[in-house]
Amino acid sequence: xxxxxxxxxxxxxxxxxxxxxxxxxxxxxxxxxxxxxxxxxxxxxxxxxxxxxxxxxxxxxxxxxxxxxxxxxxxxxxxxxxxxxxxxxxxxxxxxxxxxxxxxxxxxxxxxxxxxxxxxxxxxxxxxxxxxxxxxxxxxxxxxxxxxxxxxxxxxxxxxxxxxxxxxxxxxxxxxxxxxxxxxxxxxxxxxxxxxxxxxxxxxxxxxxxxxxxxxxxxxxxxxxxxxxxxxxxxxxxxxxxxxxxxxxxxxxxxxxxxxxxxxxxxxxxxxxxxxxxxxxxxxxxxxxxxxxxxxxxxxxxxxxxxxxxxxxxxxxxxxxxxxxxxxxxxxxxxxxxxxxxxxxxxxxxxxxxxxxx
RNA sequence: UAUCGUGUAGUCGAAUGGUACAGACAACAGACUUUGACUCUGUGUGUUGCGAGUUCAAAUCUUGCCACGAUAA
Length: 358
Fold this sequence. Notes:
This protein is α/β, with parallel strands linked by helices. Helices cover 25% and strands 30% of the residues. The chain contains 8 helices and 17 strands. The strands form 3 sheets. It has a 6-stranded antiparallel barrel with strand order 12-15-14-13-16-17. A 5-stranded parallel β-sheet has the order 3-2-1-4-7, sandwiched between helices. The chain has a 4-stranded mixed β-sheet with strand order 9-8-11-10, with no helix packed on it. Strand 10 (260-265) and strand 11 (270-274) form a beta hairpin. Helix 1 (13-24) packs parallel to helix 3 (54-67) and helix 4 packs antiparallel against helix 5 (100-119). The longest helix is centred in the N-terminal third of the chain and has 20 residues, at 100-119. It is globular and about 70 Å long. Mean pLDDT is 92; it is low at 42-50. It binds one RNA strand through helix 5.
């Protein structure tokens, strides 16, 4: 009896090819596309480069039709609104910089979708993420590993997966190179073979997330002061939500040398501006942890660490701290460590775990 | 009030009296990126504060006015 797999199909090339590969491997598959927000809310008159618009649903359906498999559309709008969009807004209000893609993985794809799949008696879900899942018989734990195509590796945004999620998930693209994925899509004549990779926040049109927060989410954005490291006022900012640590563009401030956001102070509604060197620090505290390769960190360990997506890893030592925190000490100072972003710990290709930066 | 100094692109600032802006920063646009960012590449016609004068030629010299700054009483 073939294993049953529900493939999360965004309408893009990756998840479509994932479906093709699984079917070729003999799985009994069906496709599922998630409706995460109303198109009216996002205005997708032209073909956007987001991942879940109406056109994308059509593309997914078309691919499923071609493969001769069932296609479902699940409406997760409410959960998405609550767990992803609202949290996104609250984070910005609190002066930190969220990563909605990770929340979407945690609360939608690898939570709601798995539940639904189990309800429908599927054995697994599958996605088009570039990462690999393995099982370590020594520790008895499922492992998350980097993709073979390191330039496309997405293990960073999957660090939130728990053992149960991992045991129920297939990532057929983990061993593939992107160029080959496109090639397969071409060969199979998939409608989205040449569709551009998705990017930008999927629920925010034209990348204007600050406008989205103000207009759609009712987030207030009060003007305030830019201050230098000594506390002198050096200009006026448009509101704290417009900035993130390490940001250079859009400050409108000319100091004769590049100026960056060093941090944001919610209490005084100020944004501290400094030079590139002011951005570096050698430690951070991670909380809201999710450990994968081990149950819990009980003693210090060496690891390589990423403090943001598409950044190369750096050496560090992890120190357990209290119940649910880890202090990360870097060998070399790191640039623009940003509260709200994820920090992910690696041992070679293996994801040890990760957490949110405080 | 007097004396001195300064006034060039959005900002800072180059430019032996020779037909205007090197550079930096900002801004804008692309590229990169399934978050926010960083990074990379590309993009600069403005009455050189206003007016008069000297000169073949003035941002540059002289001078009046204006603005700003400093010093002096």
